[in-house]
Amino acid sequence: MKSAAFLAALAAILPAYVAGQAQTWAQCGGIGFTGPTTCVAGSVCTKQNDYYSQCIPGSATTPTSAPTSAPTSQPSQPSSTSSAPSGPSSTPTPSANNPWTGYQIYLSPYYANEVAAAAKAITDPTLAAKAASVANIPNFTWLDSVSKIADLKTYLADASALGKSSGQKQLLQIVVYDLPDRDCAAKASNGEFSIADNGLANYQNYIDQIVAAVKQFPDVRVVAVIEPDSLANLVTNLNVQKCANAKSTYLTAVNYALKQLSSVGVYQYMDAGHAGWLGWPANLTPAAQLFAQVYSDAGKSPFIKGLATNVANYNALSAASPDPITQGDPNYDEIHYINALAPALQSAGFPATFIVDQGRSGQQNHRQQWGDWCNIKGAGFGTRPTTNTGSSLIDSIVWVKPGGESDGTSNSSSPRFDSTCSLSDATQPAPEAGTWFQAYFETLVSKANPPL
Ligand code: BGC
């Protein structure tokens, strides 16, 4: 996701507000927001989170925190929890196979809604059709706040019912992402919990709620990416005060997550940054040692499968040639990084396998610096998710970051403004992290490689 590199802050760009009503897709509310709070005709001001309300086209049919309908390719009726089987009485048995083998990936209704609204807003029919098709490509549901666990419950029940009605077992992909003092080396994704304010206990409660939900549906397989950026920040960013302060809490919290999620059979991949971060030769050994230690401290559960790389980043799995911004790193793409990290993990006692995010990696050589991570201009959707990865170390190519959701706001007056989001290779103006960024989505669609 992010990078270790810290970049000189650019001059803050003052937000430009147009008096009157906010345009479609513009911000219309949120903490610290001082612009117009009503939208032009045809759009409704819709709260996305405490920091951000956005003018969404149409009426209130677009995503709030709860899904309203499932994607058309996966017709399904959410079943009531009363029909849910009771939880397993003992620890589930891990499969020795690739977790995806024999399962169909459940498509996120939340994302399908985002994409359907976005496609409707595109006037060019060819582009609109391509855009609409993105709803059928699986990505991950980010549990970025406790409130999102309501969606998880709905999806588990829905996936369970779908599995029963179709005879096709379902696999749900989630990102566990709510550490206290989250995103300690950047600002764009600062979260709801703070270490100083009961953060660890709040986090444990968040994990407990996920575990309770998963336990109710043993027929649905769940695969999780664990806490993007957190452990990678402990490898390289302890010079940042917030990360140094967070170190012991992150380790305790991640340990809790790994153990509890293992106890209900969730297949887990800890986030391991990307080639341009931990892939530098000097970072590989410390990274391997930390991940192996965390794995060991969590009891070496076979449900802790390995590591996720390039989450929400833009690197190729296998680059045709090194992008000049990789400046001599021998691990200039994800496959080189994984091939270098795996043996170091193995010798530290962690026989890890990997998943790699390629959701926005379709285009290459369009960044100014390798450390840039925010809404990179010229990015396109990338290789589709597949278990045909070409490497026995890689369980699946995945799309973790839902393409079209912002990496961070470019509004310098926001409490979560990170100057990386105003660099010259960052698309602007950009809304808050995680909220819909229509212009960005349209570029991802038109620059998709392979094409949609
Ligand atoms: C944001 C999350 C969001 C995720 C997926 C992160 O950058 O902080 O809120 O869920 O991206 O879009």
From TrEMBL:
<feature type="binding site">
    <location>
        <position position="313"/>
    </location>
    <ligand>
        <name>substrate</name>
    </ligand>
</feature>
<feature type="binding site">
    <location>
        <position position="142"/>
    </location>
    <ligand>
        <name>substrate</name>
    </ligand>
</feature>
<dbReference type="Pfam" id="PF00734">
    <property type="entry name" value="CBM_1"/>
</dbReference>
<dbReference type="GO" id="GO:0030245">
    <property type="term" value="P:cellulose catabolic process"/>
</dbReference>
<feature type="signal peptide">
    <location>
        <begin position="1"/>
        <end position="20"/>
    </location>
</feature>
<keyword id="KW-0136">Cellulose degradation</keyword>
<dbReference type="InterPro" id="IPR000254">
    <property type="entry name" value="CBD"/>
</dbReference>
<keyword id="KW-0326">Glycosidase</keyword>
<feature type="compositionally biased region" description="Polar residues">
    <location>
        <begin position="407"/>
        <end position="427"/>
    </location>
</feature>
<keyword id="KW-0624">Polysaccharide degradation</keyword>
<feature type="binding site">
    <location>
        <position position="274"/>
    </location>
    <ligand>
        <name>substrate</name>
    </ligand>
</feature>
<feature type="region of interest" description="Disordered">
    <location>
        <begin position="404"/>
        <end position="428"/>
    </location>
</feature>
<feature type="region of interest" description="Disordered">
    <location>
        <begin position="63"/>
        <end position="96"/>
    </location>
</feature>
<keyword id="KW-0732">Signal</keyword>
<feature type="binding site">
    <location>
        <position position="277"/>
    </location>
    <ligand>
        <name>substrate</name>
    </ligand>
</feature>
<dbReference type="GO" id="GO:0005576">
    <property type="term" value="C:extracellular region"/>
</dbReference>
<dbReference type="InterPro" id="IPR001524">
    <property type="entry name" value="Glyco_hydro_6_CS"/>
</dbReference>
<feature type="active site" description="Proton donor">
    <location>
        <position position="229"/>
    </location>
</feature>
<feature type="domain" description="CBM1">
    <location>
        <begin position="20"/>
        <end position="56"/>
    </location>
</feature>
<keyword id="KW-0378">Hydrolase</keyword>
<feature type="binding site">
    <location>
        <position position="405"/>
    </location>
    <ligand>
        <name>substrate</name>
    </ligand>
</feature>
<keyword id="KW-0119">Carbohydrate metabolism</keyword>
<dbReference type="InterPro" id="IPR036434">
    <property type="entry name" value="Beta_cellobiohydrolase_sf"/>
</dbReference>
<keyword id="KW-1015">Disulfide bond</keyword>
<dbReference type="InterPro" id="IPR035971">
    <property type="entry name" value="CBD_sf"/>
</dbReference>
<dbReference type="GO" id="GO:0030248">
    <property type="term" value="F:cellulose binding"/>
</dbReference>
<feature type="binding site">
    <location>
        <position position="401"/>
    </location>
    <ligand>
        <name>substrate</name>
    </ligand>
</feature>
<feature type="binding site">
    <location>
        <position position="373"/>
    </location>
    <ligand>
        <name>substrate</name>
    </ligand>
</feature>
<dbReference type="GO" id="GO:0004553">
    <property type="term" value="F:hydrolase activity, hydrolyzing O-glycosyl compounds"/>
</dbReference>
<protein>
    <recommendedName>
        <fullName>Glucanase</fullName>
        <ecNumber>3.2.1.-</ecNumber>
    </recommendedName>
</protein>
<feature type="active site">
    <location>
        <position position="183"/>
    </location>
</feature>
<feature type="binding site">
    <location>
        <position position="144"/>
    </location>
    <ligand>
        <name>substrate</name>
    </ligand>
</feature>
<comment type="similarity">
    <text>Belongs to the glycosyl hydrolase family 6.</text>
</comment>
<feature type="active site" description="Proton acceptor">
    <location>
        <position position="407"/>
    </location>
</feature>
<dbReference type="Pfam" id="PF01341">
    <property type="entry name" value="Glyco_hydro_6"/>
</dbReference>
<dbReference type="InterPro" id="IPR016288">
    <property type="entry name" value="Beta_cellobiohydrolase"/>
</dbReference>
